[in-house]
Amino acid sequence: MMKQELDTRDLYNLIQSEDRVIVFGYAPICANCQIAERMLNVAKEVVGFEYTPVDLNYHEAFINEFHVQSAPALLVFERGELIRSVYAFESVTKLVEILQK
Question: Engineered SS bond to 27: which of 4, 67, 71, 81, CB 3.0-4.6 Å?
Answer without folding.
Answer: 71
